[in-house]
Structure formats: C-alpha cells, structure tokens
Design goal:
Low-confidence stretches: none
Shape: globular
Number of strands: 13
Radius of gyration: 19 Å
Bound molecules: coenzyme A
Strand order of the largest sheet: 1-7-6-4-5
Mean pLDDT: 95
Number of helices: 10
CATH class of the largest domain: Alpha Beta
Distance between the termini: 18 Å
CATH superfamily of the largest domain: Thiolase/Chalcone synthase
Structural class: alpha/beta
C-alpha cells in the first residue's frame, strides 16, 4: 500500500461578514451570550447569488495553484456538502467543468459536518489501491440558506465557506496514518432539516417554503463531546501514537465549549488545539477544511507535524484521522 497524504490545501470565504451586533438586530440575543456560550464573534455569509459551487470552485482553484497541480491531472473530485446548488447535477460535476478537470470522475458525499474527513478517507482508498493518482476533496457549504433567522438557538451558530485539498502519494513516513469513520443513526433526530412531503393531488402544495435546521442543542452537545473524544482515541490507537506525540489537534468548529470539553476529557493542552470558530462560526463540513488550511498557513502545522483531525456532525456521524504532515 502506498503512503497517501495531503499535497496542497486551499480555501474560500465569502467577503460579507455578519457580526454578533448584526444578529442583535434580528433576534433577541446579545454579543456577550453568543461569545460566552459558543466562542463565535462573527461569521461569513455568501451573497444571495453565490451558490455552494461558487465557494467550492474558488477553494479548488487555490489548492491547485498552491500545489502547482494541473487540473487535467486530477483523477477524481469529491465534494462534501449538505447544501448543494441543486439535487443534481452534483457540485463535483460543476467544479469539474469550471476548473477544466476533464480527466476526472466526480461525485458528492453527504456526511454533514464530518463530510471532509469522510471525503479524505474515501479519497485515500482510491489512491492507496492505485486506482487514481490525484484526488481533489472539497468541503463547501452555504449552510446559511438552511438557517431559520427567527430561531436564536441556531441562527447565531452558522456561517458559509469552503476548504479544499489535493491528495496523492506522500513521502515515506508521511501522510494519513489512520482513519476512523463512525455513525450513530439513533441520534439523527438531534439535528435535521426536514423536507415537507408533497401530495401531487393536493392543491395547496406550497413550493415556496424552504426547510430549515431543527436542532436539540443541549443533547447534541453531550453526544458531540463523547463521539469526538472516542474518535481521537480510536484513530490514535490505529496509528500507534499517543496524545503526547500529537503536535496539533484540528477539530470541527461547532462550539468553543465543545472543543474545551473534549480537551478536558482527554487531557489535551488547549494550546495544541487549532481554533478559528470566533471568525467563522460553524461552516459544517467546511469548518475543519478551512481550519486545516489556516493551521498550516499560520505555522501551527509544519512539515513533520503529527496532526489529529476530528469531527462530528448531524446523522450523527463522527470521524478522525491521524496525519504525519
Ligand atoms: N441568545 C440569548 N439566549 C439564548 C440564545 C441566544 N442566541 N439561544 C438560546 N438562548 C437561551 C435559551 O432560550 C435558554 O433560555 P432559558 O434558560 O430561559 O430557557 C438559555 O439561553 C440556555 O439555552 P440552552 O439551549 O440550554 O443553552 P446552551 O448552553 O446549551 O447553548 C447551544 C446552546 C446551541 C450554543 C449549545 O447547546 C450547543 O452548541 N450545542 C451543540 C450544537 C451543535 O454543535 N450543532 C452543530 C452540530 S454539527
């Protein structure tokens, strides 16, 4: 089996910023409540005419440029998203066309906030097995389209963005050392977007109603902490490494208090954990992809660093990877 690693990363964030002060004007909340209960100060919001594929394409272009990789050398594009432009075509096909990756296969994965790590692990299988040489994985979300802007319990949490990476053969001793994917469907009801069912013979079918996020935050919080802690432990065991060897933990950025609780449970010093939730909120699958990009850019991850990636998301789905950078 070949060593498979991340050759390059990219990201894209919409320029429009929505601050806690802006939210104070639309729901009964305060900057102080949002910061103390979540750690979020502001988030990015895509424009009305900016779709998921727009975010995905821009993140992909940066990953190609930074890696000096020709789009024609990409064999497969995987987009992980729960907010595609439309049911079909897939966002991956839209990206393929836009970047000119004419030799690539393309498909989307739906694994909510764990999508990026589900994508990395899927990509690794195609590469390690020798089927493909280069795979582009993009996590892109315009999740604010699913937000109920009247629900203060959820609307303060989310933001839009995209992160991308290109995977291929890594040097000896480097690359993705282990993976752990898990699902607990019994917790699916804790966070869902339910589409209304339609009867073709009923005259009052309202096609304008758009479904929104429904969440039981308190219950989700507890499951999130347990599943992320467990995912890190399992992936470390599979990689044969211990916590003191890990240089940087990059977690899904859903709530700063969830990250702190995981750190406490596993006894991880908080300075080893990369956090950018204050700037972007929860961007679903894109959160960890953008955090990974920034952690490398800001020097928290360097060549040779041992990195733990860990996520949880609606489903409930959790995942972790140990990577030697
Ligand atoms: N501003 C002010 N008050 C708010 C508020 C807001 N934006 N949102 C909720 N409140 C209020 C509630 O109404 C409640 O008031 P009450 O005590 O009078 O009933 C109080 O704050 C406490 O609410 P609670 O839901 O218990 O707060 P919490 O400490 O659990 O924090 C979340 C709420 C959503 C931030 C937290 O539960 C969370 O992050 N859960 C996980 C969510 C998540 O990760 N989702 C994404 C999964 S990928």
């Amino acid at each position: 089996m070949k060593n498979i690693g991340i050759l390059s990363t990219g990201h894209y964030l919409p320029s429009r910023v929505l601050t806690n002060a802006d939210l104070e004007k639309i729901v009964d909340t305060t900057d102080e409540w949002i910061i103390t209960r979540t750690g979020i100060k502001e988030r990015r919001i895509a424009d009305k005419d900016e779709r998921c594929s727009h975010l995905a394409i821009n993140a992909a272009i940066e990953a190609l440029e930074r890696g000096k990789i020709d789009a024609k050398d990409i064999d497969l594009i995987i987009v992980t998203t729960i907010t595609p432009d439309s049911n079909f075509p897939s966002v991956a096909c839209l990206v393929q066309k836009a970047i000119g990756a004419t030799n690539a296969a393309a498909f989307d994965i739906s694994a909510a906030c764990s999508g990026f790590l589900y994508g990395l692990t899927t990509a690794k299988q195609f590469l390690a097995g020798g089927i493909y040489k280069k795979v582009l994985v993009i996590a892109a979300e315009k999740i604010t389209d699913l937000v109920d802007w009247n629900d203060r319990g959820t609307c303060v949490l989310f933001g839009d963005g995209a992160g991308a990476c290109i995977l291929g053969e890594a040097e000896e001793g480097h690359g993705i050392l282990s993976e752990h994917l898990h699902a607990q469907g019994e917790f699916g009801h804790l966070m869902a977007v339910i589409t209304e069912m339609k009867d073709p013979l009923e005259q009052d079918n309202d096609t304008t109603k758009s479904p929104v996020i429904n969440m039981q935050g308190k219950e989700l919080f507890k499951v999130a902490v347990n599943s992320m802690a467990e995912a890190i432990e399992i992936s470390m065991k599979k990689a044969g490494v211990s916590l003191d060897q890990i240089d940087c933990v990059v977690p899904h950025q859903a709530n700063d208090r969830i990250i702190t609780a995981v750190a406490k449970k596993l006894n991880i010093p908080k300075d080893k954990i990369f956090i950018n939730i204050h700037k972007y909120g929860n961007m679903s699958a894109a959160s960890i992809a953008v955090a990974l990009y920034e952690a490398e850019k800001q020097g928290s991850i360097k060549k040779g660093s041992l990195v733990a990636l860990v996520t949880f998301g609606a489903g409930l789905v959790s995942a972790a990877n140990i990577v030697r950078w």
